[in-house]
Amino acid sequence: MEVKIADSWKNILQTEIEKPYFKELLNFVKLEYLNNQCYPKEKDIFAAFDYCSFKNLKVVIIGQDPYHGENQANGLCFSVNNGVKHPPSLVNIFKEICTDLGKEYPENGNLEDWAKQGVLLLNATLTVRANEAGSHQKKGWETFTDAVIKQISDNNKELVFLLWGGFAKKKAKLIDKKKHYILESGHPSPLSANRGYWFGNQHFSKTNNILKSINKTTIKW
């Protein structure tokens, strides 16, 4: 399997890609895609880097696993392909945007527009077997994406990291808090959101207020 990572990320990630564990991971993924239905499509595995250039980076959102339902995952965390029914977590993300920013609920669940504005939508695990949540965890993806987060922290300043839920919050240890902004809340999944840990976090307006304060263009959520 060939790794096609966007040019703007190559210098940052080249060393990681050449490590033995990553080659083993790619072999595992290649066999999985040959023998099973897996998501996202092979061409979209590294889509988070394709749509968001390293130089344009402003915000990092960390997810856990790609969606494992048919035609849902498109390589961007929480995002779904055009025309696909919005999964519950995405519904709650959009509901919070509506109340936080006074916007109308969007028809389209594809978050490519966010990525193109400088929002890295990074899942900790970049692939999954169909209908088997977590099936590609602990195979090496987390090692790679942890390294990505660390490199982003080390080679940038004044980024906004949105850590939603216990899993994402654990990534805070990889981020230099003196150089960056971290906003934390519960996960947008119904289990967390319905217990009061998600709604009202105002992360979207807070992110834009931070960006304004450091003279960066805000995100059109």
Describe this structure in words.
The structure is a single chain. The protein is an alpha/beta fold and 221 residues long. It is built from 9 helices and 6 strands. It has helices at residues 7-17, 20-35, 47-51, 88-101, 112-116, 141-155, 165-169, 190-193, 203-213; strands spanning 38-39, 59-63, 119-123, 128-129, 160-164, 181-185. A 4-stranded parallel sheet has the order 3-2-5-6. The chain has a two-stranded antiparallel sheet with strand order 1-4.
Q: What key phrases describe this protein's structure?
A:
globular, 221 residues, alpha/beta, 4-stranded parallel β-sheet
Helix content: 25-40%
Q: Number of DSSP strands?
A: 6
pLDDT below 50 for ≥5 consecutive residues: which ranges?
A: none
Helix-strand category: alpha/beta
Give the ordered list of helices and strands: HHEHEHHEEHEHEHH
What's the pLDDT, averaged over the residues? 96
Fraction of residues in β-strands: 5-15%
Termini distance?
A: 34 Å
Shape: globular
Q: What is the helix tally?
A: 9
Integer-rounded radius of gyration: 17 Å
* Biggest sheet record: 4 strands, parallel
Q: Give the spatial strand order of the biggest sheet.
A: 3-2-5-6
